[in-house]
């Protein structure tokens, strides 16, 4: 599916993002819901949510998302109140995205290393560096520990680990920050290549994912 790029935010809009527990939202009036992936922990509450709120628009990029009634396409722009959103095609973890995490990325459940490379490097990596990253899971501390194992001399990673240990919330990040410490966005960097024993960046991406899968 897509990454949702918010380009203009003028005032508050009523929306929920990846909500799986609609009963927690009973005191709010939502007009829109965004579900990027079909995983139950992201979209499992869609059908109940839409039954509670007639006229709710459910956006998503995978036709199998429950209760989906607005399938977005790559590059499509749409409005949520006065928020302008643009969908970007960033698949790999699933057909529905869930690609970039703080300091890491999703497992390659339905995609390949070259797809993740395209999503992280050619699409997200080309966004303005001050673009904020609000990801679907918060695995920041474990991701940073893995990043440090790949680049033990990277001071940015060390500083980020110290910062994460003091904060209750580590989201959002920025694209610029991810390019400095996220190994999956640094597959063209010599130190990351050396850690994987690979030279081709797509092979580096695949090797990193296997290493992360087995990292403890």
UniProtKB/TrEMBL annotation:
Cofactor requirements of the protein: Zn(2+)
Signal peptide feature range = none
Q: Which Gene3D superfamilies would you find in this protein's record?
A: Ribonuclease Z/Hydroxyacylglutathione hydrolase-like
Q: Which GO terms describe its molecular function?
A: hydroxyacylglutathione hydrolase activity; metal ion binding
Q: Which Pfam families does the record associate with it? A: HAGH_C
InterPro entries (UniProt xref): Clx_II_MBL (IPR035680), HAGH_C (IPR032282), Metallo-B-lactamas (IPR001279), RibonucZ/Hydroxyglut_hydro (IPR036866)
What is catalysed by this protein? Answer: an S-(2-hydroxyacyl)glutathione + H2O = a 2-hydroxy carboxylate + glutathione + H(+)
Tell me which UniProt keywords the record has, alphabetically: Hydrolase, Metal-binding, Zinc
Q: Which family does it belong to?
A: Belongs to the metallo-beta-lactamase superfamily. Glyoxalase II family.
Question: Under which name does UniProt file this protein?
Answer: hydroxyacylglutathione hydrolase
Please name the source species: Racocetra fulgida
Give the organism's phylogenetic lineage.
Answer: Eukaryota, Fungi, Fungi incertae sedis, Mucoromycota, Glomeromycotina
């Amino acid at each position: 599916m897509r990454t949702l790029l918010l380009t203009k935010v003028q005032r508050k809009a009523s929306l929920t993002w990846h909500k799986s527990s609609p009963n927690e939202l009973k005191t709010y009036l939502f007009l829109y819901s965004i579900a990027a992936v079909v995983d139950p922990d992201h979209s499992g509450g869609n059908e109940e949510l839409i039954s509670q709120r007639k006229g709710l628009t459910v956006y998503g990029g995978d036709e199998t998302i429950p209760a989906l009634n607005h399938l977005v396409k790559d590059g499509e722009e749409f409005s949520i109140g006065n928020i302008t959103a643009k969908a970007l095609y960033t698949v790999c973890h699933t057909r529905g995205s869930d690609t970039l995490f703080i300091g890491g990325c999703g497992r390659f459940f339905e995609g390949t290393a070259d797809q993740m490379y395209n999503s992280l490097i050619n699409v997200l990596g080309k966004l303005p560096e001050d673009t904020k990253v609000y990801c679907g899971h918060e695995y920041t501390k474990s991701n940073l520990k893995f990043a440090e194992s790949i680049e033990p001399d990277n001071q940015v990673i060390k500083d980020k680990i110290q910062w994460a240990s003091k904060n209750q919330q580590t989201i959002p990040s920025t694209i610029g920050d991810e390019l400095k410490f996220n190994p999956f966005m640094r597959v063209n960097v010599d130190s990351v290549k050396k850690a994987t024993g690979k030279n081709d960046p797509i092979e580096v991406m695949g090797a990193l994912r296997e290493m992360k899968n087995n990292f403890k």
